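Dear colleagues,

For the upcoming journal club I promised to circulate an example of a predicted protein-ligand complex. I picked one with manganese (II) ion because it came up in last month's discussion. The inputs are reproduced below in full, followed by the predicted structure.
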Amino acid sequence: MRKPLILLTNDDGINAPGLRASLSVAKEFGEVVVVAPDSPQSAKGHAITISDPIRLKKVDVFEGVEAYECSGTPVDCVKLAKHVVLKNRQADLCISGINHGSNASINILYSGTVSAAMEASLEGIPSIALSLLDFAWTADFRQARPFLKLIVRKVLEKGLPNCNLINVNIPKLTTAQIKGIKVCRQSDSRWEEEFHEAKDPRGVPYYWMGGDFAATDMAEDTDMWALKNGYISIVPSGHDLTKYDAIDQLNEVTFA
Ligand code: MN
C-alpha cells in the first residue's frame, strides 16, 4: 500500500516552530509536501492574490522533505500546491498549523490557518486546522504531540464523515494535564475591539486595532468551554455558509 500524501501549510510562515511540530508528526504517517507562506500571514482569512504575481520557491529547510515557500496568502499556498506542485497527485490529507494562538470560536472566520484547511477541503481533501493557545514563538508544541498523532491517525484511517474539515484547538497545558478530546460546536463569542489613534511622523493620523476576546458564549457544548476545562476541542466545519433553517421562513415571511 502506498504511503499517504500529506500537504502541510500554515499562516505563521514556513519558519514558524508550529509548522515544524506538525511536520514531525505528519512525517510518521506519510510523504509530506510543505507549501507555506514566506512571511507571517495570520488573520488573512480566505484572501487570495489576484492583482500581484505570486512567487513560489523550492527550499531545503526540512531534511528529506519537499518544501516550498510562497509569497502569497495561506489559501494561495494551497491553490499553488494543487495546481503547480502536486499537479495530478491528490493529497490524502491537509494539515494547516500548528498555529501560534487560538482559532476557537468565531476566530475561524479570520484565521488564515483554518482558511488554508478550508481551501483544501473544498478540493475534497480531508483537512485538519491545528492551533495551540499560545501566541509565543517559543511555545511548547511537544505537549500536544501524543494527541496530534491520535488525531492524524484517526482521520487517515476513518476519514471525516459529513465534513472535510476539522478545526482543532489545543489548550496550553502539559500532556498529563490535557484531559482528552471533545467534539464541539464553535462558541458564539466576539472580540471587543478598540482602535488606537495616533499620528505618523508626518502628522497624518493612523489607527491600530487592539482589543480583548470576550468569552460571552461558554455553554458546555462549545469549543471555548472544552478548552477552558482542559480538553482539546474539535469543531467539524465546512464551506457551506447557508442557514438552512432560515430558507422556509425567508420564503414564507420576508419575501412572500
Ligand atoms: Mn497565525
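Two points we might discuss: Residues 11-12, 42, 99-101, 113 surround manganese (II) ion (CB under 6 Å). Residues 145-158 form the longest helix (14 residues).

See you all on Thursday,
B. R.
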